[in-house]
């Protein structure tokens, strides 16, 4: 019998209950039939549809066999739940009400743990902010935090690959199905809408360069004969709200948990991957709750992507110990819930904080346990970008020595109609090439500057955040700075981590600052890594102005998501690296 199928007999019950505003939410509960009630309960709230059975659902089958009830709820406006789907707007109140409803069932012990990955991870954190009675622990896996900072958007730019595929493949497709089921779309119209969605997500670069991007639903569904009472924007109801607010404001604050971490008083198990879309969000949740919550927080990071936890990512295989199955991630979840929901402490949670990360290497790697993340002994190390103005053609250098005065800057042209192509990275969703892929072809472009260390005399182990601080000038009203850290070896050049910042948001996502003609300092958050570069290999940094379709290629205007085809223009970019205009790479080095 497969390990993800319960061995114990269980029953299935469907219920509805009311959200605080009276909206009916649909919930399905699997619970043992032979074990003695009451049961501790695990809950997953999902916008992707309640499962018919608990098979192949990670911790669910194991939990039922261990005497838990396991519940799945359709979030508002999805599946069989009522109301309108407004991503994350209602999840705090709805989730808290569901926890309290479950805790009050006659078959419940009154203690509830939550789990799930991606959106089902995010909604746990939001519900925990409400401090519902009965919530005992949360286990957000691959979970975002502030969606404007590092998931669907990132420091002013749009994560187009994730935003487009999720908005159309997940949200619009489900909306079409709900309208079809309600009789508001006939068979042929629903089929045409699905065909339009498939075309848009199959040709992501073309879709990500549609102008103006804010009007994308109208462009995608232009050839679909929708009825008069259904507009293209109705199929992607959040699109205008998101793209009309490039600056962080009260709207984004509605579902940003980060300012309120101090309200969460339950233990957390935070799981993510180094090549995972929500890596930054998961680490933000862990760090914020570690620092501001009174409850213990735990962290596990593997060499995983958003869609693949096998231990193989991109071009690399990290070995037999690297997968979630080999690590025992679901057994770890069950031990976590036994410890904090059932009040039966189990290893490794009976012995202080669990912080484990997989150290990646080109040929494998291994798991390491830490006192915290980053490890307390880790130190920041700064490298200077250097060249003779040739980093876009012959390559530049990374050195520990600062540059002299009057060192020639590097120059390139950003062409929005021919952006630097995405080659791997923390991508989502759909059929994407996520993870580390050889980037040598990308580096041969003349709009990509490369800076590389000499062959390392001893191994360099990175363990923590990475950041690039660049001194840039552009002749456009705005531009993007994209930085990618790479491992350079004889067999290829592989990305370790990367980031982007839109120049007009160089002082924060909550304020737009005009881009002057003079050079400006731009900090690019490149997220975290735990990676070892052996002696003889080299560390490198790529700097460019685009990475498409992962991010929307900047059209060279002051309002990029409202730019028309006529507004698109190339931009001349200059990267400085001289005394008083340094550009640097800062890594966190393990000791």
* Number of DSSP helical runs: 15
What is the count of β-strands?
Answer: 25
- Globally, the shape reads globular
Radius of gyration (CA) equals 24 Å
The helix fraction, in percent, is 10-25%
Tell me the strand percentage band: 25-35%
Low-confidence stretches: none
Mean pLDDT across the residues is: 96
Task: Kindly identify the CATH topology of the largest domain.
Answer: Rossmann fold
Largest sheet: 11 strands, mixed
The separation of the N and C termini measures 45 Å
Walkthrough of the structure:
With 591 residues, the protein is α/β, with parallel strands linked by helices. It has three domains: 10-150 and 253-369, Alpha/Beta hydrolase fold, catalytic domain (Rossmann fold, 3-Layer(aba) Sandwich); 157-244, no CATH class; 379-589, Galactose-binding domain-like (Jelly Rolls). 22% of the residues lie in helices and 30% in strands. It contains 15 helices and 25 strands. The strands form four sheets. Strands 15, 16, 17, 18, 19, 20, 21, 22, 23, 24 and 25 form an eleven-stranded mixed beta sheet that branches. The chain has a ten-stranded mixed beta sheet with strand order 1-2-4-3-5-6-9-10-13-14, sandwiched between helices. A hairpin with a 5-residue loop joins strand 1 and strand 2 (24-32). The model has no long low-confidence stretch (mean pLDDT 96). This is CocE/NonD family hydrolase. Residues 388-431, 545-564 are annotated as: Disordered. GO terms for molecular function: dipeptidyl-peptidase activity. Keywords: Hydrolase. Residues 334-586 form the Xaa-Pro dipeptidyl-peptidase C-terminal domain.
